[in-house]
Known about the structure:
By secondary structure, this protein is mainly α. It is 73% helix and 0% strand. It has helices at residues 2-11, 17-21, 23-41, 49-68, 77-92, 96-119, 126-139, 146-158, 161-195, 197-215, 218-242, 259-283, 296-301, 304-324, 329-360, 364-388, 394-411, 414-426, 432-439, 446-449, 486-500, 511-532. α4 packs antiparallel against α5, α9 (161-195) packs across α10 and α19 packs parallel to α21.
Amino acid sequence: xxxxxxxxxxxxxxxxxxxxxxxxxxxxxxxxxxxxxxxxxxxxxxxxxxxxxxxxxxxxxxxxxxxxxxxxxxxxxxxxxxxxxxxxxxxxxxxxxxxxxxxxxxxxxxxxxxxxxxxxxxxxxxxxxxxxxxxxxxxxxxxxxxxxxxxxxxxxxxxxxxxxxxxxxxxxxxxxxxxxxxxxxxxxxxxxxxxxxxxxxxxxxxxxxxxxxxxxxxxxxxxxxxxxxxxxxxxxxxxxxxxxxxxxxxxxxxxxxxxxxxxxxxxxxxxxxxxxxxxxxxxxxxxxxxxxxxxxxxxxxxxxxxxxxxxxxxxxxxxxxxxxxxxxxxxxxxxxxxxxxxxxxxxxxxxxxxxxxxxxxxxxxxxxxxxxxxxxxxxxxxxxxxxxxxxxxxxxxxxxxxxxxxxxxxxxxxxxxxxxxxxxxxxxxxxxxxxxxxxxxxxxxxxxxxxxxxxxxxxxxxxxxxxxxxxxxxxxxxxxxxxxxxxxxxxxxxxxxxxxxxxxxxxxxxxxxxxxxxxxxxxxxxxxxxxxx
Length: 533
């Protein structure tokens, strides 16, 4: 009964009554969120304010649901917890790849959470979930004018007919006059200032200062842009949700004859079976039957990314077949064999990467690839269940799997793991190229790098100051860093960390940057003590 009542409440009065009847409430809420967004992210994208913005986003959604009379469903609390965890993990890592995907993940989780709250979506299939999410984002585009439309409707309702018309007319004329006067004033004051020095000193300089510091100031423009992003993003998102315009698909009777899919899959599966046999003979035998001229590492490296692409293609192909074609026993059997071949390819790809890592050690990309392959294996298990059971909730399964896997990856601080592994594995024999790569990672790697105890080298070879790293406008320009010297490369990295974190305050506090700064300071103290000894 509650579900029916709230749906009726949303669907009356033009499809968007909640926003129209509570215009000032939602405008005020969006303005407050915009102000929080600007304060948090002004020249400070990653910091302690990030999880607070994530919490503010959830609070805005909660206020919207409360105003709409929609209770929070218990099984959707998992989305709320995942959003908060992603916000926290952003303060623990400085890796921009992870930070960007944390942001995407938060937006996607909030979107799915709100769709499940408003639409139920219990009968949606995987494809319909994806299409409706995209449809919601596209629906936000025409809603960019909704704040003005809703405010105009509110104004007309609250004012008397004659008084409202007179005031609206006057306000409109005043705004038109101001808009026309500003550009004319800019030109006239410029001309008059150049014509008379006294006028220029009294009015022109003050006007130019106002334009420079307030209108055309990069700082003011950035703050205004962040505010507008927060305000319009929140208001348009909620307004698009209120429209209740998600397309409902009639899934029965629209699926195609499976003969074409059976023919296609039979041919592709035959090739896959041959490929899987080759993997068993050449790769999984420990390299005893390798082609002539190949080392084991070279063979493991060859074609790895192509294999990973094929695995992803297979996953999407199976989902498409389930969505487009009618269920058929032969088609199901072929899809299961197809999934089995894909598992062999995933195992082959993972095995190749492990062999490559054993020779060339860890990197961020190699860890990411192994993580993705493990996730793909779990997702493929859900696809196999969907093949066997038509009513299986594949999208919810995939959302849970991706969220769980990504939370592990996000909190894993991969740069720190890579640096710790390589430093411990290579020890003092670590090469300059390895040090250079580790130093190019985010500050997550700095505590592990500070454990390296390397001596200066190649100072007498005439290498000179690092051309790649030297910058005349930087504080590190006072120091000499020699090419090819591992110790110099480390010291340059630590000097950069200290410079970048020097002004870190309460608003910009970041856990990973704090520990990196502490590690760099400890390293410098150790070096100073060793020098005095």
